[in-house]
Amino acid sequence: MHLQYKLTPPDALYATVQLPASKSISNRALILNALSLSPYSIRNLSNCEDTQVIIDAFNSDSNVFDVKGAGTAMRFLTAFLAGMEGDWVIKGSKRMHERPIHPLVETLTALGANIEYLEKEGFPPLHIKGRKLKGGEVYLSGNISSQFISALLMIAPIMEKGLIMHIEKKIVSKPYIDLTIAMMAQCGVTVKWIGNDIVVRPQQYQSTELVVETDWSAASYWYEMVSMIPNSEVKLLGLIKNSLQGDSNVANLFSDLGVTTEFTEEGAVLRHTKRKAKKFFHDFVNEPDLAQTFAATCCFKGIPFLFSGIQSLKIKETDRVQALINELKKLGFVLKETEIGMLEWDGERCTPEKDPAIDTYDDHRMAMSLAPGALVFKTLNINNPEVVTKSYPHFWDDLKRAGFQIEER
Q1: Per-residue 3-state assignment (H helix, E strand, C coil) for 334-361
Q2: Each residue of 133-183: pLDDT tens digit?
Q3: Is 50 a catalytic residue?
Q4: Which of 247, 289, 363, 398 is an active site residue?
Q5: Domains and CATH numbers, the chain
Q6: Edge-to-edge strands, sheet with 114-117
Q7: Where are the alpha helices (DSSP H) in 60-124?
Q8: Residue 24 half-sphere exposure toward CB, CA atoms < 13 A
């Protein structure tokens, strides 16, 4: 029997929320801590499922690692294990075995790795015979997942010749690569990015005490809620203005959709304003994880939109573009994928379903971005709500504390 939540929203929204730690920073910190042979514990480490699978892998006595649905863990651990002496197998969920990993595997093989596909060519699960990698020069397309580039970057200093990456085409999710480079610098490693070339010479990582920031991606759902309720005010504890996270741009983007952000010593205070764009245009190439939040917000507020730069959404936990089209149609909104990487809503409506139930597709962001729809529709059902454990385990508890009624069905 699948779990379903029925959400009933509060009339007003005044809340103080302790957001989870950043999954992106936590996952990088774990890999860098291991490469540094650091004696320090990581401070404010995320307790989400995606981070836990990396912790479990490092604590395991087995040579077989199951990363479940965690794409970041699959990519980071594949590169990490390729450079570590030993015989390893890495696998995941059914959906994970449908997500391509061949650009990373082919590049690692060119750098001296020994990796075999155990089932379908180009996809996990993988058999890795780990050894010291030679390194050298590789050519990569910038429109692949930034996680492939970050995975290679973190192991580059321990390669015999280091690594030179020649990046071709426009880079997707560049802030995530900047984040990786900034965290490597915290651990004493210098990376040079000149034009389209990223150069990492052989170096020693230095042990350092890493601290994980609060998660800006998780903040986006509270921005969505504040934008929809007049006079609302939410304090998000722990957010910092000058963040390493690309998704901190959510504060700027929501200023056009009716939310102001004031930074205090405690975090950020979000307040509703009457400001409302007539139409919302944005290229999400640097913040693809925010696209679902903005698609839902614009529909719920009646703001037509045109998004570009979302091609990476098709190979996430689900095909997020198609999932948005399916689920928002249940609520009466007709979205169109005009071409790969483009999503548009021109204001077209259809008859909404009676008592709709939102499917979540094993995707945490589908659940969290559409849940605020309860504020418009007065009640909303969410199927398989437990998917939020991937990045924001206490999301539903935080909603309850903010005044939402949540009934299990």
Answers
A1: CCEEEECCEEEECCCECCCCCCCEECCC
A2: 999 999 998 777 889 999 999 999 999 999 999 998 878 788 999 999 999
A3: no
A4: 289
A5: 4-20+215-408 (3.65.10.10), 23-200 (3.65.10.10)
A6: 64-66, 86-91, 126-130, 114-117
A7: 71-82, 102-110
A8: 27
